[in-house]
Specification:
By secondary structure, this protein is an alpha/beta fold. The protein contains 18 helices and 15 strands. The strands form three sheets. The chain has a seven-stranded parallel beta sheet, with helices on both faces. Helix 10 crosses helix 13. The longest helix has 24 residues. The C terminus is likely disordered.
């Protein structure tokens, strides 16, 4: 079943390195993306035959797939990378992506359910689960077709938890890795899932030669779930690995000093006001990011320490996420409501306590990084959280980091951060006060150590480490 293309390295992910917009005249505009996988694939060098398999996510993508006859997309539109985009039935994709991956698996791994009312695993769930299986099968079949004999395949994330086992059945010759970018739920919570579904997810990933995670904590949780659901040991022989994705320092520092970032800095300085400190957060309005409790902690700071009124501004960038799901729309509205409430309660003619922006603007985010005196990163639970790593790298004067102990980044950055329980509003307010009052020298030293830890495994090396670990016959590096 090997392809005539004979790719030696394959990556599979829901979202690919390119997306297409259909213009009014019917033509297509390609937009190339970035991120760790793009950097990693570039790092393997032009002589390595590589293919990226991804899903068509909209009408423009589907039109591009049809134009390509279901094969590889034109190289001039993909930055020279070989990309095969799958035109999976739109209803199947929606049920797999929103109905299962984002509404069930994401909620399980981030511990987000309000359990008196949810989850409800009924006949409708089973119907959506069948779509999730079909979605994973489509990826497995495409990978099997594209891969050369003995090729290395790196399958990404919770969207494709079943694909390793499905691909193993089709192509037992392949070296398969699966990487989880989310946390992994502890056994008691994971077992909210129906027993057969829990087992299917675990055995799906155990179809890989290697299952890798962002932190040792998430890797251990996966192993614990395997033991609880499937019985002691890892009978498949799957190796467990850890690769803590870091910030791309060279890219960030160069991009943060482009003219558009300087323009955004000038505008932000004006919004903040002369001589005031800035508490910065940059997040999507994702339920797990805990933006509302961060705002409540800032309000508590202003209440407990009136001396900070008119001397500090909370710069909160909360970019809308998953607005096709009602619970996310409601959460975004609550973020706005609480920010407005704080500004109404404490604001003065010359001071707006919360500067909230909800329109995504990467240059403005970098400007905020540079201006940050304090970075607030307080997720309920997060696989890693690259913002916690990026702000210390980019900050002009060095920043204090207030960090949730439930972020994956805590494993690497906790020693030099001010650590909080993300549910504790009073404790987070105290941490913000501590961060704002750190002596300049201590803040600069902490920030320097944070930046060094944050860049230990930049995206290209993170990708290559996974590839090299898959090549090894025996566990190596952080594998176990």
């Amino acid at each position: 079943m090997a392809s005539t293309h004979g790719a030696e390295v394959l990556v599979a992910s829901n979202r690919g390195p390119v997306s297409y917009q259909m213009l009014d005249d019917g033509s297509l505009r390609a937009k190339r993306g970035g991120g760790g996988l793009v950097s990693g694939l570039s790092a393997i060098g032009p002589d390595t035959d590589a293919v990226w398999v991804c899903a068509a996510l909209g009408d423009g993508d589907r039109a591009a797939v049809r134009r390509a006859g279901g094969g590889l997309l034109p190289a001039e539109e993909t930055g020279g990378q070989r990309v095969r985009m799958l035109d999976i039935d739109a209803t199947v994709h929606a049920e797999a992506y929103n109905g299962i991956a984002n509404s069930v698996l994401w909620f399980v791994h981030h511990l987000l359910y309000q359990t008196p009312l949810e989850p409800v695993f009924d006949a409708e769930f089973r119907r959506r689960w069948a779509s999730y299986e079909a979605y994973n099968q489509a990826f497995a079949e495409a990978l099997a077709e594209e891969a050369a004999e003995g090729a290395a395949v790196l399958i990404q994330d919770y969207h494709l938890a079943l694909a390793p086992r499905m691909l193993r059945r089709l192509r037992p010759d392949l070296r398969i890795g699966h990487f989880s970018h989310t946390p992994w739920a502890p056994p008691d919570y994971f077992r909210l899932l129906p027993d057969d579904i829990a087992a299917e997810l675990l055995t799906g990933i155990l179809g890989a030669d290697r299952a890798a995670f962002l932190t040792r904590r998430w890797a251990d949780a996966f192993r614990d779930c395997c033991h609880a659901v499937l019985g002691p040991g890892i009978p498949s022989g799957t190796r467990i690995g850890v690769h803590g994705l870091g910030a791309d320092a060279d890219f960030l520092r160069e991009r943060a000093h482009e003219p558009d970032v300087d323009e955004r800095m000038a505008a932000l300085r004006e919004e903040i006001g002369e001589g005031r400190k800035a508490i910065v957060r940059v997040d999507r309005t994702e339920l797990s990011k805990n933006i509302v409790r961060g705002l409540l902690a800032y309000r508590q700071l202003l209440e407990d320490h009136p001396e900070w009124r008119e001397r500090v501004v909370h710069v909160a960038f909360a970019y809308p996420s998953r607005q096709d799901l009602a619970v996310y729309r409601d959460y975004t509205a609550e973020v706005r409501r609480v920010a407005d409430e704080i500004n109404t309660e404490y604001g003065t003619a010359g001071w707006t306590p919360v500067v909230l922006h909800v329109k995504d603007d990467f240059a403005r985010s970098l400007a905020a990084y540079r201006l940050a005196d304090v970075a607030l990163v307080n997720p309920i639970r997060d696989g890693m959280n690259l913002v916690a790593k990026e702000i210390p790298v980019v900050s002009d004067e060095g920043c204090a980091l207030v960090l949730s102990r439930e972020a994956g980044a805590y494993e690497e950055l906790g020693e030099d951060a001010i650590v909080v329980n993300p549910y504790d509003i009073t404790g987070t307010a105290r941490a913000l006060h501590q961060a704002l009052t750190l002596p300049d020298g201590e803040r600069a030293e902490r920030s320097k150590r944070l930046a060094a830890a944050a860049t230990a495994l930049p995206p290209a090396r993170w990708f290559l480490d996974q590839l090299h670990a898959l090549d090894e016959d025996a566990p190596g590096g952080q594998s176990s």
